[in-house]
Design a protein that fits this description.
By secondary structure, the chain is mainly β. It is built from one helix and eleven strands. The protein has a four-stranded antiparallel beta sheet with strand order 1-2-8-5, with no helix packed on it.
């Protein structure tokens, strides 16, 4: 019985000390452009030594950052989601030129309102991050934009 309790205690200690890596924290904000147009802004705050990849990456590279906006009949998307300039380098992990972001990145999507009522836009961002030696599996995060 003592061995079972000891084994259980060791498992709990190792599970408690396991670190879950979440090197990107997302924020959602809204900017009014005009009475009928708004900009949805998704900002990624990226931990030191990590890279968040662009929305456009070469075939055979990492998973591209992708935004999915759920329609609700209260807005229309205007164009595609635009991203910051970022930087393009020869990525040591994938062995190709890839655009990525360090520290912070903003992604902006313009919308045209179909109502004057306040509403929420639900979105999902799928992304992948790597450091100089490893990559984390693709991750999805839900975002909520409050349009007032």
């Amino acid at each position: 019985m003592k061995h079972i309790i000891l084994a259980f205690a060791l498992i709990m200690v190792s599970v408690g000390q396991a670190q879950i890596l979440k090197p990107v924290k997302w924020e959602a904000s809204v900017k009014k452009i005009s009475d009928t147009e708004y900009e949805l802004i998704a900002t990624a705050n990226i931990d030191e030594h990590w890279h968040l990849y662009s929305q456009t990456v070469p075939e055979g590279g990492p998973i591209a950052t992708t935004f999915t906006f759920q329609g609700n009949g209260k807005f229309l998307k205007k164009g595609n989601t635009i991203e910051d300039e970022g930087q393009t380098i020869d990525d040591p992990v994938f062995g190709m030129k890839i655009k990525f972001f360090e520290t912070k990145a903003s992604f902006k999507q313009r919308i045209k309102l179909k109502t004057k009522e306040a509403f929420k836009v639900n979105a999902t961002v799928e992304f992948m991050v790597c450091d100089d030696s490893r990559c984390l599996p693709p991750t999805e995060v839900d975002l909520v934009f409050n349009v007032n």
